[in-house]
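Case study.
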Amino acid sequence: MVTSLLDLAELELHELEAALDGRGCEKFHARQLYRWIYKRGVTDFAPMTDLSRALRTQLAEEFEVSTPRIVGDDLSIDGTRKFVLELADTRRIEAVFIPDTPSMTFCISTQVGCAMACGFCLTGKMGLVRHLTAGEITGQVRVLAGATGMLDHPFNIVLMGMGEPLHNYDNTMKALRVLHSEHGLAISPRRVTLSTVGIVPGLERLAGEPLMPNLAISLHATTDEQRTELVPPNRKYPLAAILDACRRFPLKQRSRITFEYVMLAGVNDTPEDARRLVKLLAGIRAKVNLIPLNPAPGIPYERPSDERVDRFAQILADRQLTVSVRKSRGRDIRAACGQLIVEGGTKKSAAQQMALLMR
Ligand code: SAH
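After joint prediction, the assembly is written out as follows.
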């Protein structure tokens, strides 16, 4: 018999209240369920002992809490842990725990694969397989927090795993609302950073959200010609349009937009690039995060030398731009930026197979 259970992992608190209403439940039951699922990491109804036995039985008959399953857990020498998670349809995604940065950080995926096709990113080679649901996005946080013993500790979330969050806008924002619920993990939007290639209509919608995460823009180039080559969506949303949306973005006091800039040897790492970057960001409350390329098989670029990165950073700093160089963590286990691609799953795309062959 095929039964279709309603998946509680997909519900915001008010939706859960509505689902329980009429089943003889009160509002506080929804809050109790949220506490079990998000704060204690319990997804079976049987151990939820502050609910009556009859209610637990009824819940188990009608509902489920679908949760990604850990099928891979690799520990890097620097403490970074890369998890491979299997979803209900057996598709796989990756999520990464990065400890002591000095905060504890979870790097979470928003899609299986990615449609953006950035020239230096392995996930981009997969193409988009599908969007993640809100429950699959929050599920990664539940699973990682449970596995790393962080359910009771503060942590940050960066939407910098597989996928483009603004290409999966509604599910991503729903996930942030669920994570924010005071009856669940109660994660403040200040602890969440959304990283995007700069899909302008998405940026404009984000500007009107009551719950606004920190914003990071993957800039990577200082001319449209070069950016279109590295980040193809630039054809539709060129630099001027993105920077214009950033200028209008309603930033909270003392907060700034992060501009990520992946450094590719001999391509975008010259002193002229640095000076153009300073000009582009004039008038924006910005900080720049330089990411020396994490090389990967099938990626036709190289990582610049440390001296070259330092020189670039110095030019920005001399002109009063705040700049940091991202220390890429977990490179030995392919957990670093742009290295997330699911290997060894049953559903390998042609691009994945190619990337594996080229290792
Ligand atoms: N799609 C979103 C979030 C995912 S990637 C975005 O593009 O912002 C998070 C960051 O890692 C992005 O800035 C991305 O450009 C960068 N990145 C991708 N591949 C990389 C690589 N091979 N080396 C270093 N950084 C990379």
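Observations recorded in class. Confidence is low (pLDDT under 50) at residues 344-359. Residues 116, 118, 120-121, 160, 164, 195-197, 218, 260, 262, 291, 293-294, 296, 299, 337-338 surround S-adenosyl-L-homocysteine (CB under 6 Å). We will return to this complex in the next lecture.
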